[in-house]
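Progress report, Aim 2. The chain analyzed during this reporting quarter is listed below.
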Amino acid sequence: MAVAVGDPQPGNRNDTVVYRTSGIDQKLAGRPVMADGAYRGNPEVIIPYRKPADGRDLPAWKEDSTASTAPSAPGSNTAWPG
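Predicted structure tokens for the chain:
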């Protein structure tokens, strides 16, 4: 596992913008990158599946996949397990 850390950014900056403008995206190019839901819409990272807007439950395979990414991801305030 590679961990990329950049300089602190203002809290009001969008996570995806910081990911791209900091150069971390280039440092991690070609590697799978896990992130939290704040990276939604960024095809370069793996994020947890979200519950559908109509309130339906996620299919079991998506629920299992999402559970395997918890409890944290790059950019979150929780440390990686291990």
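Helices lie at 15-21, 24-27, 60-69. Residues 15-69 form one domain. These observations will guide the mutagenesis work planned for the next reporting period.
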